[in-house]
Amino acid sequence: MFNPNEGTLALSDGDAVLLDAVGTLIEPVERVGVTYAAVAGQFGTALDPELLARAFGEVFRGMPPMAFNAGSIDELKRLERDWWRTLVMKVVSLTGSTLDEFDGYFNRLYAHYSEGHAWRLYPEVEAVLRGLRARGCKLAVVSNFDSRLPGILSALGIAERFDTIVYSTAVGSAKPDAGIFRHALAVLGVAAERAVHVGDSLDADYRGASGAGLAGLLIKREGPVSGTPSYQISSLDVLLTWGDR
């Protein structure tokens, strides 16, 4: 398993690998600002993709945790849509623009990101998942996402490779809260000391996992970020090769 003092990672039969979704396994096919602007154009409104992208990042960081205590599936789906509707409304407002048909605009955006064709896998993902499974590792997705995630991963052909797909809206806990990690470990039947979590957020993934007793790895595909932990990787391939170095 991961030894932070030695900088080694050796995964074997019975260990668990927990993986974030967006930024780790999948990414949007096109940049968020481009999609938001294109859909706005379908409703006769011109929005600037760069302004939208900056606004999205700012608003997303300020949103409350995507975790609810819903009493039913219908209520859960309503709360999820309301969360995203609030985000999109704030994003558009922050650009200084308005949309006469905002509900139609939001509905089309929400449906777009529900489909597999809006997303793509990072190049190494399928091979790494096969390799981890061949080593006898248990696999889970642990993501601050909503109930669209299993369908997206299924459309991309990797849902069946995981023992469980845990998303924050369903379990009432969002990273970095320890509850979402503990839920995943309980489903897998694996102790925290035999698990590693990989994600692209320093706070939500690395610090969240570490705080829950798991080994944490920070994936930064564009290269290491200064001032952050030395336990950074630029590709999931490292999960298979680290112990061989």
Give me some keywords for this one.
10 helices; globular; six-stranded parallel beta sheet; 245 residues; DNA polymerase, domain 1; 2 domains; alpha/beta; Rossmann fold; 8 strands
Describe the structure.
- Helix 1 (32-42) crosses helix 2 (49-62).
- The model has no long low-confidence stretch (mean pLDDT 93).
- The chain is globular.
- The chain has helices at 32-42, 49-62, 73-94, 102-112, 125-134, 149-155, 168-171, 178-188, 202-211, 238-241; strands spanning 16-19, 26-28, 119-121, 138-143, 164-167, 195-199, 215-219, 232-233.
- It folds into two domains: 16-25 and 122-244, Rossmann fold (3-Layer(aba) Sandwich); 29-117, Haloacid dehalogenase-like hydrolase (DNA polymerase, domain 1, Orthogonal Bundle), CATH 1.10.150.720.
- Helix content is 42%, strand content 13%.
- The chain has a six-stranded parallel β-sheet with strand order 5-4-1-6-7-8, with helices on both faces.
- The two termini are 14 Å apart.
- The protein is built from ten helices and eight strands.
- It is of the alpha/beta class and 245 residues long.
- The relative contact order is 0.19.
Please give the alpha-carbon distance between the first and last residues. Answer: 14 Å
Order of strands across the main sheet: 5-4-1-6-7-8
- Helical content stands at 40-55%
Q: What is the CATH first-level class name of the largest domain?
A: Alpha Beta
For the secondary structure, the number of strands is 8
Q: What is the CATH T-level topology of the largest domain?
A: Rossmann fold
Total count of domains = 2
Describe the structure concisely for a colleague.
By secondary structure, this protein is an alpha/beta fold.
